[in-house]
Amino acid sequence: MTEILSAAVIVGILTSAIRLATPYLFASIGEAFAQTSGVLNLGVDGIMLMGAFSAFYVTLHTGNVWLGALAAMAVGLLMGLLMSLISVTFKAEQGISGIGLYMFGLGLSSLLFKVLVGTVYTISGFPVVKIPFLSQIPYIGQIFFQHSLPVYAAFLLVPLAWWLLDKTTWGLKIKSVGQNPAAADSLGVNVDRVRYFSVCLGAVLAGLAGASLSTALVNLFQENLTAGLGFIAVALVYFGGWRPLGILTGALLFSVVNAFQLWLQVLGVNIQSDVAVMLPYLLTIAVLAFSMNRVRQPAALNKPFERGEN
Amino acid sequence: MATAGQFTQLPRIRRIEMREIVKRFPGVLANSKVNFDINAGEVHALLGENGAGKSTLMRQLYGLYRPDEGQILIDGQAVEFHSPADAIRAGIGMIHQHFMLVPTLTVAQNVALGLKSSREPLLDLDRVSARISELSQAYGLKVDPSAYIWQLSVGEQQRVEIIKALYRGASVIILDEPTAVLTPQEVNDLFATLKRMVGEGHGLVFISHKLHEVMEISDRVTVLRDGQTIGVRRTKEVTRDELVKMMVGREVKPLSPQPAKVGAVRLEVKDLHAMGDRGTEMLRGVNLQVHAGEIVGVAGVSGNGQRELAECLTGLRKATHGQILINGEDMTHAPLLKRMAAGQAYIPEERMRDGAIREFSVQENLFLRDHSAPQYRRGVFLDFSRMAARTRQMVDEFNVKTPRLDTPLKNLSGGNIQKLILARELSRKPMVLIAAQPTRGVDIGATEYIHKRLLEQRAAGTAILLISEDLDEIRTLSDRIAVMYEGRITGIVERDQATVEQIGLMMAGISKEEALQHHSAAEHS
Ligand SMILES: Nc1ncnc2c1ncn2[C@@H]1O[C@H](COP(=O)(O)OP(=O)(O)OP(=O)(O)O)[C@@H](O)[C@H]1O
Ligand SMILES: [Mg+2]
User: Partner of A147 at 20 to 30 A CA spacing, among A283, A302, B64, B180?
Assistant: First the structure.
């Protein structure tokens, strides 16, 4: 049992934690854009499934992971447009439309998988790219700098999202549309367009989250591959207080616990595997219950905008 | 020093004309063939009762609504605005009746919102801040560009709104009831700014229910009634009474209440303490008595504890120390229901937040309280026909203008919402009535009506506590005036014991004795 705490094991846990954080980061940062603009998109998991399937399928047939990622982004964009159409243009209840979108993605990806693929294949996904010099650093190198490109991309997304939200004119529009759409509208900001943009950007990232799962992490597709991962991603946005750095913290916390329980199972530590699998989710619930992030919640979240109300 | 003119890079508007504007809402003809025009370098006031269609008219000029019929001409050219963006581009700005600011953002961010930056796609907030400072210099609009909106007072927020319009180079600026929420001092500052703007050649549209403000600031006045233009006058050539007659369609005479027939103490407040929203003590030992059949007015500059006092009295805020007695019974910590049962009614200051539900219909709002009263129940069900009949009766009796009984409240104009709440609260024949700013944003006719109702209620023996920042209102209605300063009642005077100036002094923290002295000193010199 001493091996649980050996350096090799700790490095192993942290390495897989970094890897596992990838889909959460893509999906949560994407969802943060949508929510900051005032649209709660609960369909993330469905979009991820469709993204994961498209990336897998295209890669399987072309052997090109990049084409796979592109396909996932395209499918994400389409589903984002669908979500925007329902919740922004037709002003439907956002929570319900999101759940609809999830069911749609779950069903369609399963159907396509059965019809087009049939059995589980593994593919060769994104290769590991060792960063020169940095990957040589003992421990640090292995934990942070020996991953595939999507993993690096997910982490680069964090400062990028912060920059976009806090430093650019677009970010200002997104935030104001989520806080007080009437004010933004009265200054000539096109509220619907900003919301379309944010929801679609979020959906493209959710598509990529799915692709990272099927072509970089597990390199296969099966029915309901995500197993609710997209819903955790939504929770992480609340956890992170709608800020990229907060989301990063949440995603890491979650994936470290997750990696830990995986290693416990690998090492054959004697606890029920079901209990181990529950660990990260219990943690999420506990943290959500105790975090007081409501203050930062976009005031117009979940509220369709219509001009001309006093 | 920076001059103001250098900021306007847009072509200057010399004249805007709105011709034969028609705007319909479901069941309402909000504007019917309205004509309105505005020239550079003048203030054109727009007057009219609640629901006359003033905001609607201006919202069309700002591109928020599109006219059903009619034309808008700028310097003779017909224009069509599809959104505020078009109006802004044409050089029009608007300060809305309800502010349009994002509270979680800074002043500079609110100003920069929607504008092209000089470093696109990056924000250039340092430049924006610098220009805000120049503008505030040039027009006397003091504001800190890096402060968050939620930290600002109402007056400061309004300055941000004006800067937003000026920053966009607006040449014609619409001000929809800009003074409704300001203290007298802030109104003076605002007028100084407006005069500078007019001097610079801006054209201003000024909407207000306060006639003395209109007489002071405007060059011309247009009066609307029921969506129609009643007339246009030069302010110099018209009297206050004529304007009232144009607005209301009849004369409104100042009220002169009968002497009070005072009874026993109904409401008593003893050494009341309470905390404010920001964690500081806002009530620091309030002592007050209100007798049956009398109106006690609480005067004071806003933010001296009046709101907290009203909230403590109605149970919305916890008192940390002291006592509230209704008919001698301790109600300090009693729940709302018990206070209501003891005969207390409340007309709240934030009527949209505390007094009514926007999405509910007129009828539902009237029955928010009495929905479970036995006469409106049939078993476990509500007796809708009886409720509708009662609603119709109350709406008629209190003159509430609404197209239907099931119209959602949010489609009523401000004054009519207030009348509705009054109808609900007074119909219960209360023993004690707390009225907080009962006529804020309410037109002259409705104000007179509400005042009459309050006096009737007083004659019927109700003890009324009137909290208001409008000194005229306090002086017209109150039998006794309690001045509130920094969380205490610093002095109580009889109706005719003190002049407006003396009460003003007391509101600024000068003791009653000194303030009354000031009077005699002024008389002797
Ligand atoms: N969005 C809307 N939908 C339906 N009816 C509306 C809407 N906006 C205004 N109205 C109605 O149009 C009429 C004119 O309203 P408007 O807000 O222009 O009045 P106002 O003159 O500005 O009154 P106030 O002094 O109370 O602000 C009112 O009867 C109001 O109920
Ligand atoms: Mg109005």
Answer: A283
Q: Which long-range contacts (CB under 8 A, 24 or more apart) does B147-150 make?
A: B147/B106, B147/B107, B148/B103, B148/B104, B148/B105, B148/B106, B148/B107, B149/B101, B149/B102, B149/B103, B149/B104, B149/B105, B149/B106, B149/B107, B149/B110, B150/B103, B150/B104
More confident residue, B239 or B398: B239
B344 and B274 inside one domain: yes
- Ligand 1: residues with CB < 6 A are A 308; B 25, 28, 30, 48, 50-56, 97, 411-415, 443
Q: Which residues of B touch A308 (CB under 8 A)?
A: 59, 64-65
| Prediction pTM value | 0.83
CB pairs under 8 A between A and B: 86
B54 alpha carbon, closest ligand: 1
Assign residue B306 the CATH number of its domain: 3.40.50.300
If one residue of B50, B413, B418 were mutated to test the ligand 1 pocket, choosing by the most ligand atoms within 8 A of its CB, it would be B413
Chain A residue numbers touching B110 (CB-CB < 8 A)? 176, 183
Residue B215 structural domain: 15-246
Q: Rounded to whole angstroms, how far apart are CA atoms B87 and A307?
A: 15
Q: What is the pLDDT of residues B405-455, one digit of tens each?
A: 888 888 887 778 888 888 888 887 889 999 988 888 788 888 888 898 899
Where among B200, B218, B246 does a domain terminate?
B246
The pLDDT tens digits for A129-138 are 999 989 889 8
Chain A partners within 8 Å of B174 (Cβ): none
